[in-house]
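User: I'm preparing a small set of examples for a lab meeting where we compare how different chains pack in three dimensions. I only have the primary sequence for this one, and I'd like the structure in token form so I can line it up with the others. Please keep the answer compact; I'll paste it straight into my notes.
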Amino acid sequence: MHIDHQQPSEIKGILAWIERTGNRLPDPVFIFFYCIAAVVLISVILAAIGVSAVHPTQVDEFGNAIRISAESLLSADNIQRLLVDMPETFASFHPLGYVLVVMLGAGVAERTGLFASAMSGAVNRAPKILLTPVVALIGMVGNLAADAAYVVLIPLAGVIFSAAGRHPIAGIAAAFAGVSGGFSANLLPGQLDALLFGITEAAAESVLPAWDANIAGNAYFIVGMTFVFLPVIWFVTDKIIEPRLLPVTPQVGDEPAADDQRESGASLLPAEIQGLKLAGFAALAVILIWVFLCVAPGTPLIDESANPEARLNPLFRSLVAGFFILFLVTGWAYGTASGSVNSHRDIVRMMSESMSDLSYYLVLAFAAAHFVAMFNWSNLGLIFAIKGAAILQGSSLPDAVLLTLIILFGASINLFIGSASAKWALLAPVLVPMLMLLGLSPEMSTAAYRVGDGATNIITPLMPYFPLILVFCQRWQKDFGLGSLAATMLPYSLLLLLSGVVMTVIWVIFGIPLGPGATVEFTL
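Assistant: Understood. Below is the structure token output for the 524-residue chain.
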């Protein structure tokens, strides 16, 4: 199909303001550098006037509560720490190791074609009556495949909807809502969990140094999000969006490019089917190995000497390695059968390429690591958290109301700063300890952030994949502009945000566990 590379139609109103304002913002890396400069200035001022707070958990040798004072980042000790410990500050940034390890395996699974074949096979087999929910579900689960979900599933959904006699842009919208609007929803923890909980751990340690992240800490919550968001996307697509779309009149030659998408309804190749079968057996083998390590003599992944609530900690902390091995083994198995892997050198190449994809993230992590570290050195995060917790405690706001405000705040700034990790690295140093002092767990603060972060992804033109989605739509309707796409996705955004808030409130009211060993409440 010929793509008309025309300029997107002009956006008016609030979306235009968001686009203009967001485009004026610097790159997230420099946002962190500017924040570091602000923290330095604030630390000097607050240290000079003697701002302090009583630490909620630490006491001195006489049993008296320790008073935490603001520390100037321009003191000799902190300047020395910055310059001498710079490599250690970067290397010890919690999310860095988590993300690199998981992506080593996920990169293999993506490059062998495992993720693309699994998504294509699942969507192509969907009954027509269940086409919308299947596309949305595969989109949410497809987040485990990172970028593959955007470049494979979303255009494929348009082709399949068209072949089923439905509007192709409705299929693209449903897939986009699942992949991006349901960004945190999933049936399994993945690389996003490793990334966010690494940041959460660094923030929580300012209050409780012994707190360790469990990347399955939101496992139940994200499954709940999946089954809450699924009917929302189904309803919006079938009852609101598709009836309002103008009919598509295909012209001669107006077919989706073969190099971008699979042919609708096309069966997987025999080698791909064999690869998926072999990958399934490989996944089963990895799961059985982890089960064996939980029940074998010596139980390597169960700490039988620990308190009952802490016995599963080694298992939870092994999940980063578990996902790395799972993605690596299944990707290798698929590639061997499908022909995309001919030797171990191909695996090494794919792992290397996956690391090259993270080059920008490494630069961002360098800036974020120093912002988080310097914020902690100054004691500002803990002081703000303690004083903020005291104010909120005095206001007597119910936990549900407080978390709702946090969700709405996260959704608002997501319109301007698209990176989930960048926003959380900015917010977590204050939000996580503050909510801990108010009796809400780090897992709960992370879950609330995730609800707000995903809902507005699909309406901001600053979202990196927004122009790509527009191109997919223009394959079917050449005059479909940026404003059209934003308006199409707005009902999804509003209802996903509303349903996410309602779900969070219910979760808090009933105290439902967020994941294995992860509760809503927190006690120091």
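A couple of notes for your slides: The chain is about 65% helix and 0% strand. The CA atoms of residues 277 and 419 lie 35 Å apart.

User: Perfect, thanks.
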